Amino acid sequence: MKIIFVTIRLKLFIGVLGLFAAINIGTAQALQLKITSADALHREAIETIGYTKTFEEFASLETQISSFTAQLYQLGYIEAQVLEISKDRPLVVATMALGPKYDRIQLYADKELFNFLELESRIDLENKAYYSMGVSDLESMLNKLTAILTSKSHPFASVSLKNISPINKTTLSADLVVEKKQPRQLQSVEIKGYEKFPRAFIKQYLGIKTNTPFDLKAIRSKTEALNQLNFTNQLRPAEVLFTQDTTRVYLYLEKTKSNRFDGFLGFGSDETSGSLELNGYLNLNLVNNLNFGESFRLNYRSDENDLKTFETQLTLPYLFKSPIGSELQLNIIKKDSTFTTAEQAASLYYQINPKQKVFLGIKSSQSNALTTETINTVQDYRTTAYELRYVYQQRNPQNILVPLKRFFEIRLSKATRKTTDTETNQTVYTLNASNVFRLNLKNSVYVRLNAQGINSESYLQNELLRFGGINAIRGFEENSINATQFGILASEYRYQLSPALYIHSIIDAAYFETPTQSDQKLFGFGFGFGLLTEAGLLKFNLANGKTETQNFKFSDSKVHLSLTATF
Questions:
Q1: 492 Cβ contact list (under 8 Å, min separation 6)
Q2: CATH second-level architecture of 2-97?
Q3: Tens-place pLDDT, residues 129-153
């Protein structure tokens, strides 16, 4: 009896296991979809278009059938319909009738509407205006028309087709219906987050003006120019608030750290004594501290050759909310006990767009000889120059190590130099350009070009151009080379080891002329790195400079250290 009871329980257990196995097999079995048609040509078209055939659940299968039907409409099978969906499992068969395939459609409307939508219409035999296009392009065209209406101050406009009917076996006709609704004008621009953002920048810099036709896409495109400002950051794209009578745009901004302090220290050995020599500079740049968009720069430099330089520059944008800005500059140079030179410059500039400016200015220079000895090449003089300048600058705010991607500046000056007994006309030019060529995420090439020159009948020692050092040709003392004209090509191959560190090569070349000698060449070779620290961006350069006829001497190498801190 006991054995019989155990046997019954065992059979019951096995039966339950079999039932669960059958349920699991049925549940796990995927559904298969087959879309077909009674017409052989339509079956071929269905297979050519293609569709998903395997599904885990019936709802997804139904969604695929609806999606496939919509795709047929877009391809010109506007009469396509599902005739039957079988109830068999796991194979589900959907039988369709595609109907004729229409390749083109003629949209009819008033000629004025076509002109408003920027469409070139035609005239049919009944003198009605129409626009002909492919049926497959219809959806993208309707989206394009909606975008055009939005850009023309009709953000709530709707576009639809009515009275769709065939003209022949391949062509349809339809009435193009546009409901423009109320046109919108931009009444105001509100700032959130950085309420003291200089309002003149909205109109003059971004080009967003109130009481003009509203176009949100254009506004968002214009606000991308905020990336070229170093004192603000856009938190999220511009948004719009519509009320019954007003249209307001909201910009979400934050004020960013933009003051900058540069410190530079150079190490080298004296050519005669071999002792260690130091030189350096301090550069302070204050930006937008008054929430006006202004900048103030102060630079002090002391070079190894007893040349001291003091510079200040004040830039005031959009004076009286106009598109005109101003730049004022003072530059004082003292060369040991030989001479002093003071330069004052004032210019007005017009911001063409967020990346381009054009300047027109005047500069006055006065130099005084300090030595009592008679030196013909060092004399007192006064110079007045009129200057035209163009600047292009593209920032790369996403890259903290290399925030400036591209820079171009050209200056042309017409000057008159007066000494005690002569007056000389001069032409002065300056060209500065730099670019970062990014090869991939880690590799890039940096190239900088600097060319300057003075064209004059005669030259004075205290008016010559000075170059050399970390911002010119590396491997030479700062501002140790005097010239009437020079050209420098500096290059670096950079490899980024991490988001905070890159190493680079140094290959520099220069050509220069003096009042007595031309066709002189210089070369600088070395290596360096840039490291982003908590204090700022630390740059290290080790470079060796030589003339065309010299051999390399490691003892002549120059070490350049600079630190750029933002606060």
A1: 445, 446, 504, 505, 506, 507, 528
A2: Roll (3.10)
A3: 999 989 888 888 888 888 888 888 8
